[in-house]
Amino acid sequence: MATLPWTPATAAVHQYLTSALSHRGEAALPYAEDARWTVRQHLAALSHAFPTLRPTAGHFTHNDGRRATLLRAEGTIPLATSSSACLPVSIWLLEAYPHLPPAVFLSFPPGTALKPRHPLVEPSGSVSVPYLRSWIFPYYNLVDLVRSLAQLFSQDPPFAISPSAIHDAKAKETAEVVEAVQRHLAATGKSHTAEMEALLDTQTQLKRRKAEIARGLTRLEEEKELLEQQLQMLIMNCDVTGSWVAKNHRRPTASLDGAFEPSDAHSRRTMECAAADMAAEDVMYALDEALREGCVPFDAYLKSVRTMSREQFFHRAFSAKLCSNST
C-alpha cells in the first residue's frame, strides 16, 4: 500500500500532538526521534478521517507488567450495519511504532458481551485482524487500519447483548411504558377533575340564578297586580273627575276671597286678626331679607320691626281674647 499523504486536521489536534511530541527529558514520550513526525502525521490524518477518534496520552501496561506513557486514538468507529451503530475502540501506538503495529482494544459498553469464540477479538478485548498481522511500514497506516476494522466488524459484529441486559432492557421499557401511562392517566384524571369541579360550580351558579330569577318573577307579578289596582283606581278617579267637570265647567268661577265666608261677626273678627297676624309676619320676613341684602339701613330696620311687632302683638292678644270669649 502507498504511504498516506499528509492530511490537514483541526488546529487543536495539531497543537496537542506538537506539544505532546516536543517534550524532552523524563516527560518525553518513548518514540524515536526519526519516528515522531510519522506518529504526528498518522494521528492527525486519523483524526481528520474519523473525527470520533481523538488522540490523547495515557498509561499503557504491557503483558510483562511494564508501564509506559503512550499516545492513543480513542473513540468510536462507525459501522455499516446502521447509521447509529458504532464500535468503541482504543488504538495504542507502542514504543516501536510505526515499525511495529499498534495495539487495538475494544471497550465493552454496559449491557453487552463479547460473542463467544469471535475470530478477531480475544476475551480480554484485544483485536487481532489480518491488517495488524501483516503490518509493513511505510505502506500501512492508521486510517487504513480503521477502515479495515469497520469493514470486518460490520460483517461480523463482536458484541452480543447478554440475557441479563435483554431482561433489563425489557424491564426498563416496560417501566417506561407504565410510567408514561401513569403520567397520562394522572394528567387525564386531573383534567377531568378540574372539568368536573368547573361543571359543578357552574351548576351551583345556575341553580342560584334560577332561584333569583324565580324570586324576581314573583316580585314582578306582585308589582303588576298592584299597578293594575292603582290603574283601576286612577281610571275610576278620572271618571269621577270627568263627570264633575262636565257637570260644573259652565258655572262662573268664584273669587278666592269669597270661597270662605264667616258665619257670624265673631268669626269675621277672628279671621281678620289671624290675617293681620300673618301679614305682619310676612312683612318682618321681607324686612329680614332686605337687611341681609343691604337694601335697608339697620336703624330703619329696627324701627320697622318694632312697629310690626307691636301691631302683631295687639292682633294676637285680641285673637286670644276672642277665643277665650267663645269658650
Question: What would a concise description of this structure say?
Answer:
The protein has 327 residues and is an alpha+beta fold. The chain contains seven helices and six strands, in the order H-H-E-E-E-E-E-H-H-E-H-H-H.
Poorly predicted runs are 1-7
- Could you give the order of the helices and strands? HHEEEEEHHEHHH
Query: What proportion of the residues is helical, as a percent range?
Result: 55-70%
How is the biggest beta sheet arranged? 4 strands, antiparallel
CATH superfamily of one domain: Ubiquitin Conjugating Enzyme
Report strand %.
5-15%
Mean pLDDT: 85
Task: Output the strand order for the largest sheet.
Answer: 1-2-3-4
Structure commentary:
- The chain is built from seven helices and six strands.
- The protein has 327 residues and is an alpha+beta fold.
- Among the domains are: 11-164, Ubiquitin Conjugating Enzyme, CATH 3.10.110.10; 265-326.
- Helix 1 (11-21) runs antiparallel to helix 2 (36-49) and helix 6 packs antiparallel against helix 7 (298-326).
- The model is unreliable at 1-7 (pLDDT under 50).
- Pfam families: UEV (PF05743), Vps23_core (PF09454).
- This is UEV domain-containing protein.
- Residues 19-163 form the UEV domain.
Comma- or semicolon-separated keywords:
alpha+beta, 327 residues, 57% helix, Ubiquitin Conjugating Enzyme, four-stranded antiparallel β-sheet, two-stranded antiparallel sheet
